[in-house]
Give the backbone structure.
Amino acid sequence: MVRPFLKPGYHHYLIPSLAQIVNVLSQTEDEDKEWRAELMLELLECYVQAGRKEEAARFCSTAAPFIKSHVPQKYRQIFSMMVRHELMDEIQLKEEMKNSISLSVAFYINMLKA
């Protein structure tokens, strides 16, 4: 049902619904953290595709720590989005990279893509 809206130009239609779902899930004790992280990544992508960079950056401030602590295997994905779309200060990004070769590689690859 959502798939048709994941095409370019339609992401902005999903933002209200996805934001509400993510918000409700954050208020519950849902055990499926990976599903919640996936929805957060989709919402972030919707913000970016809709050109709502400020909202995307604000959302990253809560989504990134959640993903990093609960679903660390997806953290590189959100980190790459933050680099590519300049959603976080470069100083903060470099601080994140200090202890991770994987994030360092992701940072430089995404700087080239940006």
Observations:
- The first helix runs from residue 15 to 27.
